[in-house]
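tool=predict chain=A
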Amino acid sequence: MRLSRTARNLLRTAAALGIAVIYLPLLLVLVNSLNPDRAFGWPPSGITGRWWADAWHSAGARSALWVSVRAGLGATAVALVLGTLVAFAVQRYAFFGRQTLSFVVVLPIALPGVVTGIALNSAFRSVLPPLGLGFGLLTVIIAHATFCVVVVFNNVVARLRRVSGSYEEAAMDLGAGPLQTFRDVTWPLVRSAVLAGGLLAFALSFDEIVVTTFTAGAGVQTLPVWIFGNLARPQQAPVVNVVAAVLVLLSVIPVYGAQRLSGDTATGGRT
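tool=predict ok
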């Protein structure tokens, strides 16, 4: 299909506008984190690292960062195990209800966060008290895992669809056991997809705020929740901009890694 010069220019303009709408506000946050004016006058009167130093020494921000990292790692670990196992079950085996299982696993990513949060909050209130447990980091990890599983599942299923099961069958015909077949044949083929899914799951958990608000309880505060809670405090505005800039920069790392791994997957699945 060939496009006219006018059509190509229109598409380039639309793409440029779309990218600008997405990334210019993020750039503005980064600029304001270096703005010496607490009221964020424009244009900035200079550049300062004062707010970055204040953010580094903010006990609340550092504690929230550590909570976000732990929640992200926990949710990613759960998602890697469950998402990978379900992906293999759905793609490699035929059984009654396979399509229903696939739909149920993918559904949480499409539900509004507020719906998921309310549902999980109600479930935790019913289940946890009899067990002597309350809202905390564990409930956040479980809540985040419900939608992080989807990312891992989709990545692994997409990879398995491009890899024939004949590789494993050939290895077992040659005398390899199930564990050896998985280690020497299956894992190298799906490794990049699993790792890419894990990185995306961590990024998704690290940035989550809506579901976290309903499931964290009073004693747990992730970095996005800390930012939201301090937005209305004028004295904290510069530090909030710094923390938001850091959040954006930290989120870029796993997304970039996942994108590179996905590229490796598309070209052969070897890392």
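The chain has eleven helices and no strands. Confidence is low (pLDDT under 50) at residues 265-271.
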